[in-house]
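Give me the fold.
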Amino acid sequence: MIAKKQAEFYFVAERENAQSVVEVTRLDPTWMSLAMEAPAAFLRTLFLPMPHHAHNMLMWFSVLENFFILGIIVLLIFSFKKQKLPHNFGLILAFFIFGCTIFILSGWVTPIIGALVRYKVPGLPFFLFPLTLFSYKNWMSGSQFKWFKSSDK
C-alpha cells in the first residue's frame, strides 16, 4: 500500500507539473524495501526543504522554519544531561517513536516537498517534546508537567 501511495504521488506530481519534486528511491511492495529506505525517509522529512529547493517565497518560509526546527534539535541534543530515567519513560518513548513513525511514513510516500512540509507537522511535537525532557534546561518547569518528571530528585 505504501509503494502504491508513493507511485500515486509521482503520478500527481507529473500531472500537475510540480516544481518541488525530489527524486527518492522507488519502493517495492516488500518489507525489505521499506526497511532499507526508512532511515533515508526519516532524514529526508527532517532536513527538507533546504535553500537549493526554494523557488518561491512560500518555500523560503519553509526553509527558515526548517532551520529553526533543526536549531532547536541541535540545542536540545547539546543540552542533554545524564539522569535517571523518568518514571513515565514508556510514555515518553511512545511519543518519540510515534513522531519518528510519522516522519518515516511521510518520507516514504511523499516526493513533493510542499506536501512533505505539511505532513511532518503532526509529528514535530511528538519528536521534539521527549528531547526537552532530557535537557539541562528546565524547559518543563510548570506544575502541569510534573507528572513527566522523575519523582526522585
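Helices lie at 2-16, 31-47, 57-78, 89-109, 113-120, 124-132.
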